Amino acid sequence: MKEQFADLVILGGGSGGYSCALRAAELGLSVVLIEKDKLGGTCLHRGCIPTKALLHVADVADAARSGTHVGVMSRFDGIDMAGVHQYKDSVVTKLYKGLQGLVKSRKVKLVQGTGRFVGGRSVDVDGVRYTGKNVVLATGSHARTLPGLEVGGRVKTSDQVLESHQLPSSVVVLGGGVIGAEFASVWNSFGAEVTVVEALPRLLPSEDESSSRLLERAFRRRGIGVKTGVRFDHAVEKSDGVVVFLQSGEQLEADLLLVAVGRGPNTTDQGYEDAGLRLDHGFVVTDERLRTNLDGVRAVGDIVPGLQLAHRGFQQGIFVAEDIAGLDPRPIDETGIPRVTYCEPEVASVGLTEAAAREKFGQVQTLTYDLAGNGKSQILGTAGAVTLVKSGPKGTSGPVVGVHIVGSRAGEMIGEAQLVYNWGAEAEDVAPLVHAHPTQNEALGEALMALAGKALHAHG
């Protein structure tokens, strides 16, 4: 077998893999990047970018539908799915070509083919063995389904839905997490009748309870059906739709059933177990420096337990490259990674939920600033709130340990919030800083002023 050598061999060209490759090359390491599909992985081709393109189309549809409310004589005549896909694919293609150019310009050796980790520090691809001084595993994730629920026809995961040119008139979304909430929002804006079924007691179970309540209220106002605390039993596909049976005995009929019950790690048939790599429920076990139990082998992204977010994998890739190069970077605080659900309204957060903060600190103070007091929110016609969680009881000093935002464009506000959390800032540290008026971001400033005891645009 032919063998090639490099400082770093990376298996997987998604967010974690390609960021690791680019940063390592920037630091002077020779890099081999192996990808069986397209560079950019799930995020670029089947996740973040195409879904957010659909969400932008949904925003445009909503704006057209509501134009007369602001004096614009617009109207909504329907959705041209061929045009939607052309727009979505054009965005993906432009970014894909740009990423290819970046990798080429950094002199990263890109190997197209199915790689298999064979132990040591080697990956085999089509009869060639690539051996590195270090190996990074970044094989990503796949859309999960439930036992006994066969995907196909009118039962689809997010992967299949993104390629479908048919616009359903009614949809049951199985799963009220990030993926389910985003697609429910899109289809509602496109004019479909949507019902979300979530087995746990509330939507977005990993978010703060206050955010879940606000989102559920907003969904109901939009006409999106929400059934929480109800488990799926089985589904029966018909020629003209699908019937979804719930364990409560209720039946739901729709054109389409979207299975949005999360993503599983791509660790099967990769050679990991044969090589002695330690796994836990399919995930690769690592320490805080993303080292596995095998010497010289790291793992990043969705195969590592924790938040399955593209920007998490991206930062992990950079961290690993710098660590291998001897820069000794600080380990990533998982709690300090911002989280955004891009439905309408958006839900964004960083740090601890109120429940987690109480468990960690005992006593905490929370403050909620309603967006009704924010001028730009009124201009946009959005409702929601900024909720801050501070360690320690009211009247004592303590850092802000959680920020939770619900409202249009909340994802654009979480940047400052993650600095507040990650730098351990107290409300008094940030309250004197000037926020431009009128902006959505001003709401975060007002919330911090209120927490510091200087509330102006808030009652009480």
TrEMBL record:
The record lists NAD(+) as bound by 175-182, 198, 262
Please state the protein's primary subcellular location. Answer: cytoplasm
Any idea of its EC number?
A: 1.8.1.4
**Disulfide bonding pattern of the chain:** 43-48
Q: Tell me which cofactor or cofactors this protein depends on.
A: FAD
Keyword entries, A-Z:
Cytoplasm, Disulfide bond, FAD, Flavoprotein, NAD, Nucleotide-binding, Oxidoreductase, Plasmid, Redox-active center
Q: Where in the cell is it found?
A: Cytoplasm
User: Ranges for the FAD/NAD(P)-binding domain?
Assistant: 7-317
Q: Name one GO cellular component term.
A: cytoplasm
Active site at: 437 (proton acceptor)
Residues that bind FAD, according to the entry? 52, 115, 139-141, 302
* Domain (Pyridine nucleotide-disulphide oxidoreductase dimerisation): residue spans on this chain: 337-447
Show the GO MF annotations: dihydrolipoyl dehydrogenase (NADH) activity; flavin adenine dinucleotide binding
Name the catalysed reactions.
N(6)-[(R)-dihydrolipoyl]-L-lysyl-[protein] + NAD(+) = N(6)-[(R)-lipoyl]-L-lysyl-[protein] + NADH + H(+)
PANTHER family in the record: DIHYDROLIPOYL DEHYDROGENASE (PTHR22912:SF217), DISULFIDE OXIDOREDUCTASE (PTHR22912)
Family classification: Belongs to the class-I pyridine nucleotide-disulfide oxidoreductase family.
Protein name (database record): Dihydrolipoyl dehydrogenase
Q: Which organism is it from?
A: Rhodococcus rhodochrous
UniProt lists the gene as lpdA
